[in-house]
Amino acid sequence: MGVVNITPDSFSDGGRYFDAKAAVAHARKLAGDGADLIDIGGESTRPGALPVSVQEEMDRVLPVLEEIQDLPVSVDTRRPEVMQAALAAGASMINDIEALRATGAIEAVAAGKCAVCLMHMQGQPATMQQDPHYDDVVAEVKAFLDEAVRRAEAGGIDASRIVVDPGFGFGKTAAHNLTLLKNLGALSSRPVLAGLSRKSTLARLTGRAVEERLAGSLAMALLALQGGAKILRVHDVRETRDVLNVWEAYKAI
Ligand code: HH2
Q: Is ligand 1 within 6 A of the CB of residue 180?
């Protein structure tokens, strides 16, 4: 899954693809680099980010989606209105960092045929990195994901449409993220999506600035594959594809 942030303020590529033409060109480049899915988002959810209005989010996302309807596209949103519009415009997946907790979100997804990603987050982006706490991070994230899957299924979304995500960096310290990464296989019976690309845990582990976290991101990608992740959400598709090719050849022996 290749990331295209149509935002002025995303933590790693903020402003670079804010213009619709630049976002479309980047999406096509990532597809050419080997992404099976393009994840487009119109709201930054980096720690400390402030929400944007529904209208602003639609104005950012929909023109880009219209231009890349020939590609499998995931729309990163927590707003039911944006989900509905995205599905009407042909989105293949809804990626929701709030796991369909907004009123009307389950109904919006249930009405379509798309896949959906249910992600764990503790707190809200504006404050989530202020002293996150868990008694047992693996058990608590697992319980949250199990409940999110149960709610989605009860709302009419077939299990075969659902993937889950522990939400690396969303209300978690570096130690929480590494513990989850080590226990990825224990989190859910649904396929797991992992988003570790360029995240600040890598700053803690390597001391590198965001534009220098490629090697760390590739190490994380391999660890996630070893843990059983089925989808990797990444900014650097070409390089991650190489990791995947190495991993698959290794596994096939
Ligand atoms: N991470 C980000 C955004 N959306 N969705 C899922 N399912 N999993 C993730 O780990 C995840 C996500 C944050 O990264 P990015 O989109 O690059 O930055 P920003 O939120 O600042 O736009």
A: no
| Number of helical (H) and strand (E) elements in the chain, helices listed first | 9, 8
**Average of per-residue pLDDT values in the chain:** 96
Alpha carbon of 96 to ligand 1 centroid (Å): 10
Domain range for residue 54? 2-252
- CATH code of the domain containing 51: 3.20.20.20
Distance 151 CA to ligand 1 centre (A): 23
Identify which of 5, 76, 214 to mutate to test ligand 1's pocket (most ligand atoms within 8 A of the CB). Answer: 76
Kind and range of the H or E element at 240? helix 237-252
Contacts of 129 (CB under 8 A, 6+ apart): 47, 48, 169, 171
Residue 150 annotated to the active site: no
- Whether residue 233 lies in the annotated active site: yes
Q: Give me the catalytic one of 172, 199, 213, 241.
A: 199
Contact 134, 140 (CB under 8 A): yes
How many domains would you assign to the chain?
A: 1
Q: 95 has which bridge partners? A: 76, 117
Tens of pLDDT, residue by residue over 68-84, are 999 999 999 999 999 99
